[in-house]
Specification:
- The chain is mostly helical and 88 residues long.
- It contains four helices and two strands.
- It has helices at 2-18, 25-35, 37-59, 83-86, and strands at residues 75-76, 79-80.
- The protein has a two-stranded antiparallel ribbon with strand order 1-2.
- It starts with a helix and ends with a helix.
- The mean pLDDT is 80.
Length: 88
């Protein structure tokens, strides 16, 4: 009887060590952190805040702008707008 129990424990111990899980708890924790909607939302909010702060910082730098009023009176072989009227 004792031999059968000892053989049973040896066989089950061997099967557990051979057929054990290939992944550990840390693998599942890492996968959960990658796929967590709350953490993903926090990362997106952090990125949006960083972009907003960059936009605000650019407003404090010198700005250059230009404007002009141009007019062009087309004149082809003497036909078109009168040059004297358009200051051409």
């Amino acid at each position: 009887m004792y031999k059968i129990i000892i053989i049973f424990f040896i066989v089950t111990g061997y099967c557990v060590s051979v057929c054990g899980q290939a992944k550990h708890l840390q693998d599942y924790i890492n996968k959960a952190q990658e796929n967590s909607p709350l953490l993903r939302d926090f990362r997106n909010q952090s990125a949006a805040a960083q972009i907003d702060s960059q936009l605000i910082r650019t407003n404090y730098k010198p700005q250059v702008s230009g404007s002009s009023i141009n007019s062009y009176a087309p004149l082809v072989r003497g036909y078109g707008y009168e040059q004297a009227i358009t200051n051409g």
